[in-house]
Amino acid sequence: MGTNPIDRYLKDIPEPQKSTLTRLRGLITEIVPNCTECKSYGMPAFKYHGIVIGGFAARKNYCSYYPFSGSTLKTIATHVAKFEQTKSALHFPVDKPLSKKILKLLIFTRLNEICRSSDM
């Protein structure tokens, strides 16, 4: 693994979380090809034009996606109702990454929030 913060994070993650999050990473960079991989709040994250648009983490019994916004999950509540969640995270099975459709919805909702609040 390289010196990229996400590579370093994934290096020590056990399976099946590692494969699940690796797949999630690939989908995120496919959806937003110009994003930059980074670390934010101690977790792997993705920036677009310098603003964090999402991140993920492995937990013992689940994985989590963080939209880095307190309103994203509320905005798309009907679309993510089947997932366990907190105010700031969407939880999903350790062996099943979020679908590309759900990820697009999460990311584009977050990007829309950013655009509404700045001159991006």
Give the overall pLDDT as a whole number: 94
Q: Tell me the fraction of residues in β-strands, as a range.
A: 15-25%
Structural class of the helix and strand makeup? alpha+beta
Portion of residues within helices: 25-40%
Beginning-to-end CA distance, first to last residue:
33 Å
User: What's the architecture, going by CATH?
Assistant: Alpha-Beta Complex
- Total count of helical runs of at least 4 residues: 4
Helix and strand pattern: HHEEEEHEEH
Oligomer class? single chain
Shape label: globular
For the record, what CATH class applies? Alpha Beta
Low-confidence stretches: none
Number of strands: 6
Task: Provide a descriptive summary of the structure in words.
This protein has 120 residues and is of the alpha+beta class. It has one domain: Aspartate Aminotransferase, domain 1, CATH 3.90.1150. Helices cover 37% and strands 23% of the residues. The chain has four helices and six strands; from the N terminus they run H-H-E-E-E-E-H-E-E-H. It has helices spanning 5-11, 17-31, 72-75, 100-117, and strands at residues 36-40, 43-48, 51-58, 63-66, 84-85, 90-92. Strands 1-2-3-4-6-5 form a six-stranded antiparallel beta sheet. Strand 3 and strand 4 form a beta hairpin. The protein is globular, with a radius of gyration of 13 Å. The chain starts with a helix and ends with a helix.
What is the element layout, followed by pairings?
Layout: H1 5-11, H2 17-31, E1 36-40, E2 43-48, E3 51-58, E4 63-66, H3 72-75, E5 84-85, E6 90-92, H4 100-117
List the keywords.
120 residues, alpha+beta, Aspartate Aminotransferase, domain 1, six-stranded antiparallel sheet, 4 helices, 23% strand
